[in-house]
Amino acid sequence: MTIQSFIPPQRTLMGPGPSDVNPRVLSALARPTVGHLDPTFIGMMDEVKSLLQYAFKTKNTYTMAISAPGSAGMEACFVNLLTPDDTVVVCRNGVFGARMIENVQRIGANVVVVDGTWGRAVDPQALEDTLKQTPQARFVAFVHAETSTGALSDAKVLCEIARKHNCLTIVDAVTSLGGVELNVDDWGIDAVYSGSQKCLSCVPGLSPVSFSEQAASVIKNRSSAVQSWFLDQSLVMEYWSGQGKRSYHHTAPVNSLYALHESLVVLQNEGLENSWQRHQTQHEKLATGLQSLGLDFIVPKNERLPQLNAVHIPQGIDDAKVRQFLLNEYNLEIGAGLGQFSGSAWRIGLMGYAARNENVLLCLAALKEALAQ
Ligand SMILES: *Cc1c(COP(=O)(O)O)cnc(C)c1O
Questions:
Q1: Of 216, 250, 268, at which residue does a domain stop?
Q2: Are residues 287 and 259 in the same domain?
Q3: Which terminus of the chain, N or C, has less C-beta within 10 A?
Q4: pLDDT (tens digit, 9 = 90+) per residue, 304-340?
Q5: What one-character-per-residue DSSP string does 318-342 give?
Q6: Eight-class DSSP state of 155
Q7: Is 239 part of any domain?
Q8: What is the CB neighbour count within 10 angstroms for residue 311?
Q9: Is residue 70 within 6 Å of ligand 1 at its C-beta?
Q10: Which atom of ligand 1 approaches the CA of 197 most closely?
């Protein structure tokens, strides 16, 4: 039998990502491919840089998109900044903090873990206490928006503490970018990475990153080469720099970058602050509805992510059956629990284009029917 074209079903994506892709982004993706050193494409890449500076609220020159998903952005930050001699304090309150620890360990650097409760924000006092006992620490790493639990940490306060102890900060903003306040320059974040498929409502596969002047100088002054050739930012920057003389590093994912460009234009047209507000407004509507269905949030109210709503699965309810019902009957995807919450939680995403009235109403109606059965 001949294999036919793949025609995916039309789903509504309300899980932990990928989120619903804006139709404008999908059509940008289908535009004609040009050469990756074509002058028009280079102009577009420069625009992507400045749009990312807008989204991250930064003036950092070292701002670009890595040609790979969020996890590659994470790895890029760690492999470029760290050497095996370094000590890094990593805050772990979910799956992605744990992934940061793995990165540090694979580099052979020293890791000191600040362990927190899953479903809670990172405790600033615990970070402070650890830093007092770890004077050799050079970096602090934490996840701003922990998608595995739905908890939002106070990045501003955590960065202040890190700075007080002379540490540079590495921040995971994969789920926060575009969905909640993120202020890279004001908060003094030194290295930040995100993903295209969460609150930017772009297709998966790109990871926006930004490095402060101080982080950039750490990278420039390394005495050993970065262990990853592909993620070596000093090479990648030659490709992304706007000085006219771009040198080939790898072939940029041309059409994916059209898509990212479009998603950032959409964000700019809406206004960054308006986008944060929209996520909050839709979250409040969803939260009211979920609570009236008897579903309780895992995270305390003042630490909740609007774009990722994690609720306990009620006693006697079959997790897989409900999610299957939503998918089969409503073409609606919500997220299962991850790590410690595997089997005991649902994670309902309201990311980017999915943070709309239509989605909230659909999700509540579908869940109500599923729970009644
Ligand atoms: C999704 C996510 C990642 C990983 O991104 P990928 O694009 O799946 O590699 C990292 N950190 C957080 C907080 C995430 O939500």
A1: 268
A2: no
A3: N
A4: 999 999 999 999 999 999 999 999 999 999 999 998 9
A5: -HHHHHHHHHHHH-EEEEEP-GGGT
A6: H
A7: yes
A8: 23
A9: yes
A10: 7
